[in-house]
TrEMBL record:
SMART domains on file: HTH_ARAC
Identification of the protein by name: Helix-turn-helix domain-containing protein
Alphabetical list of InterPro entries matching this protein: Class_I_gatase-like, DJ-1/PfpI, Homeodomain-like_sf, HTH_AraC, HTH_AraC-typ_CS, INH-QAR
Source organism of the structure: Streptomyces yaizuensis
Lineage: Bacteria, Bacillati, Actinomycetota, Actinomycetes, Kitasatosporales
One Pfam family in the UniProt entry: DJ-1_PfpI
Length: 334
């Protein structure tokens, strides 16, 4: 039995140059390639065409645009029975000019949601979910260049243009380009645990986690930074998470003033030193819950979160589940 069936909606034709191919390739890469040494079985991937006919060949006066017609193994009927449905993007005309989306696509999305599928959009795919009414009353996002149009066209959607992705449980949306990869790795983390997601991210040579702007699973990944002066002190901090570390301790070890250290770490990681420390401590707790049968009290000590009650408080707030529930779902020692 696979980790789940993922159905990806593919437009009948893709315009180039555009970001369409990039965003289509993300779920294909994450969910479509078997990873038997990381987790077996892996996902089953379906590419489902909207059934649109390719347009006319571009003329000589249109050198900036080429069109690529794709053949897929499924039509929109392939959305039926899928555990997860992903809409990577919609045609530019549907975003910029308000051209209607195919009614068959909208109906298929509604049917899939009603059947219990987890619905996901990358970038402008949010326009399809919104047109289907699946984002009404929900918080959602898209590429910041299009969030204004999304909010104006669908006033029932609570559009947030400041986040990488939004997880509403059964409906998830992401901003454009690499944020779509962040969301897909987040789905793997939800389904198979932080260890599997981190291993996959390492294989793809990308950060295992970027904060999406809401409660989510965190990990021990090294921050994306070109600030070589921070590397040694952050490595040292990760090796001593069981200590009561403070910003002043880290700044002193980095031979910086607390203010300079705060500014450089925030610029390098996108978060504050205290939040970075909390993320690392939670990541350590996740790893221990997954790989050991240590009691929660001991995990609190080793991760630097202190008492079992303090560990539970931060775990529920940031991860969304209690440590015991997380262990039941993702423990590799069970």
């Amino acid at each position: 039995m696979s980790a789940g069936t993922v159905a990806v909606v593919v437009a009948g034709e893709i315009s180039l140059p555009s970001w369409d191919l990039y965003e289509l390739s993300i779920p294909c890469t994450v969910f479509g390639k078997r990873q038997p040494d990381i987790h077996d079985p892996w996902y089953d991937l379906r590419l489902c065409s909207t059934g649109e006919e390719p347009g006319e060949e571009p003329g000589e006066d249109a050198p900036a645009v080429a069109r690529l017609a794709l053949r897929t193994g499924y039509g929109l009927d392939g959305l039926a029975g899928a555990d997860t449905v992903i809409v990577p993007s919609v045609p530019d005309a549907c975003v910029e000019d308000g051209s209607p989306l195919p009614p068959r696509l909208i109906g298929a999305l509604r049917d899939a949601h009603d059947a219990g599928a987890r619905m996901v959009s990358l970038c402008t795919g949010a326009f399809a979910l919104a047109e289907a009414g699946l984002l009404d009353g929900r918080r959602a996002t898209a590429h910041w260049m299009h969030t204004g149009q999304l909010a104006a066209r669908y006033p029932k959607v609570r559009v947030d243009d400041s986040v990488l992705y939004v997880d509403e449980g059964d409906v998830l949306t992401s901003a454009g380009l690499t944020a779509g990869l962040d969301l897909c790795l987040h789905l793997v983390r939800r389904d198979l645990g932080a260890h599997v997601a981190n291993q996959l991210a390492r294989r793809m040579v990308v950060p295992a986690h970027r904060h999406g702007g809401q409660a989510q699973f965190v990990d021990l990944s090294v921050p994306v930074t070109d600030d070589e002066g921070l590397g040694p002190v952050l490595d040292w901090a990760r090796a001593h998470l069981d200590r009561p570390l403070t910003v002043a301790d880290l700044a002193r070890r980095a031979a910086m003033s607390p203010r300079t250290f705060y500014r450089r770490l925030q610029r390098a990681t996108g978060t504050t030193p205290l939040q970075w420390l909390l993320n690392q401590r939670l990541g350590r707790a996740q790893a221990l819950l997954e790989s050991t049968d240590l009691p929660v009290e001991r995990i609190g000590e080793l991760s630097g979160l202190g008492t079992a009650n303090n560990l539970r408080h931060h775990f529920v707030k940031q991860v969304g589940v209690a440590p015991s529930d997380y262990r039941r779902s993702f423990s590799r020692t069970a």
